[in-house]
Amino acid sequence: MALPLFQPQQDPGPDFTSLLATKGALGLSENAATLAPHGTTVLAIRYADGVIMAGDRRATAGHSIEHRAMEKVFPADRYSAVAISGSAGMAIDMVKLFQVQLEHYEKVEGVTLSLEGKANQLAQMVRTHLPMAMQGFIVIPLFCGFDLASGLGRIFTYDATGGHYEEGDFQATGSGGRDARNTIKLGYREQLGLDDAVELAVLALYEAADADSATGGPDLVRGIYPIVASVSAEGYRQIDEAVVAQRFEEAIERRRQSGGLAGGTLR
Amino acid sequence: MSMPYYVAPEQVMKDRAEYAQKGIARGRSLIATTYNAGIVLVAENPSKTLHKISEIYDRIAFAGVGKFNEYDQLRVAGVRHADLKGFQFSRADVDARSLANLYAQYLGNVFTHEMKPLEVEILVAELGSSQRPTQLFHVAYEGTITDEGEWAVLGGDADTIRQNFEGRFASSWDLAQAVKACAAALSGPERSLGALDLEAATLSDGNGRRTFERLDDTRLASLLA
After folding, report:
1. Is B98 within the bounds of a domain?
2. B48 falls within a domain
3. A with B: how many residue pairs have Cβ under 8 Å apart?
4. End-to-end CA distance of chain B
5. Which of A9, A147, A190, B127 could disulfide-link B59, Cβ–Cβ 3.0 to 4.6 Å?
6. Nearest Cβ partner of A107 from B55, B84, B103?
């Protein structure tokens, strides 16, 4: 590898994807199998100190379960997180590129991008992916972060064309997204504490897994639980798996006592 | 027809070296040293935005002295090289030695082939891991690369500062002791440098994946106190 130096006119600036393009290294692999694993329910909820993000662990290919412990929630940088639904391999590639893009900008420019800027960058990556989405390899990320300028947690959703929309207080995407969203809608209150927000996320994922075959619930036998992370002024922090497991056990216990009735999980 | 003039190659190289040294001597110096938790880099730099010390990668830092635009161009190229390599291979494959070699080749090329040599001296520091030891690579304006031991001094007045620092250095000292010694060695006996005249950063474990951390003015002042 030679030192990547450029004439001022050709300089790609702090944009890592342009830099990759100059090396001819951009482009997602086009020979993926038609039954590439798909990821499923991810959600984000705003709470008093920021925003939490959660995602189940199941990846399916057609009707079979391909992975039981896939991670779908990632730190994008210190103050933001990205969760993925859709074609797993490409979605994870996109996250990896997005993470490097943000860090690259920060190192070259010496300052971090604004939250809006980060959301825009991700939209451009989703748009670049559109030809693959047309062939069935759709990738729909969910992005959230703590906005240092306003001191608020903010959530952004995307569509396959790269359209991105800022959401209000919560959002969920993926095949179980509707069930998760409806659960959050019922339990959401302004200025939730972290514990209550984690509980709501757990319930939403539980309901999504209950109704959607492609969303994995808590795997009590193998000890695999959904990933829950918070993004606040302290940065990205993954909630302890033991805490998440405890929350699931409580929810399951309540549901058991209610005789499996819907609504038995919500207090 | 005009007469082609002849200048001995020795003279050309001597003139270029002198030119580069003069340029570097106009700038301020810096010291990098190991301490009990990693590496600390301290530079005399009154500017809070035009950095001499920066992050290249997870465990690699860059420091430059001399002409700002020239070493900053090298810094950006280093970030690009490291991010490309880490993306195409793995984060663990990005190492200081290969980057320092690229810098050395480039500086050497410019020194022999271009009209004007680069008026810079740079340091590529890597925090040790289970794979590689802690390393400080010093690359001079003409491409000479040196693998420094536990500490390195860069800049115009390097010889004096080196003498000042040598007696103070103690391996596995703590951060405050190291920063104080660096400040004292950079200032010399006649003046003293405070937090506002210095720029400092560390590479140390405990900050997560990215080990580079700038020491801001308040932190620096408390370390110097």
Report:
1. yes
2. yes
3. 52
4. 70
5. B127
6. B55
φ, ψ of residue B17 to 5 degrees: the values are: -60, -45
Question: How long a stretch of residues is chain B?
Answer: 225
Q: Give the C-alpha separation, A253 to A216, whole Å.
A: 18
Q: What is the ipTM of this complex?
A: 0.90
Which of B53, B81, B84, B94 is the best residue to mutate to test the A interface, defined by the most A CB atoms within 10 Å of its own CB?
B84
Q: Tell me the domains of chain A and their CATH numbers.
A: 37-257 (3.60.20.10)
Closest CA relative to residue B96, chosen from B141, B175, B32, B21: B32
Test A100 with B51 for CB contact under 8 angstroms: no
We report the CATH number of the domain holding residue B49 as 3.60.20.10
Chain B residues in contact with A16 by the CB 8 A cut-off are 83, 87
Kindly state whether residue B7 falls inside one of the protein's structural domains: no
Q: Is the pLDDT of residue B57 over 80?
A: yes
**Chain B contact set for A100 (CB, 8 A):** 83, 86-87
Number of domains in chain B: 1
Q: How far apart are CA A13 and CA A259, in angstroms?
A: 60
Q: Which residues of chain A have a CB within 8 Å of the CB of B103?
A: 3
- Cα A116 from Cα A166, distance rounded (Å): 9
For residue B19, give both structure tokens.
């030119």
Task: Examine residue B3 and state whether it is found in any structural domain, yes or no.
Answer: no
A91-148, pLDDT tens digit by residue? 999 999 999 999 999 999 999 999 999 999 999 999 999 998 888 888 999 999 999 9
Q: Which domain holds residue B147?
A: 27-224
Q: How far is CA B157 from CA A229, B27, B137, B160, B164, in A?
A: 50, 9, 19, 6, 11
Phi/psi-derived region of residue A70, left when phi > 0, alpha when psi is between -120 and 50, beta in every other case: beta
Residues of A classed as catalytic: 40
Residue in A with minimal Cα distance to B48: A110
Q: Does the distance separating the beta carbons of B87 and A97 come in below 8 Å?
A: yes
Cα A97 to Cα A13, A29, B118, B135, distances in angstroms: 16, 14, 33, 29
Task: Indicate the residue of B51, B56, B84 with minimum beta-carbon distance to A110.
Answer: B51
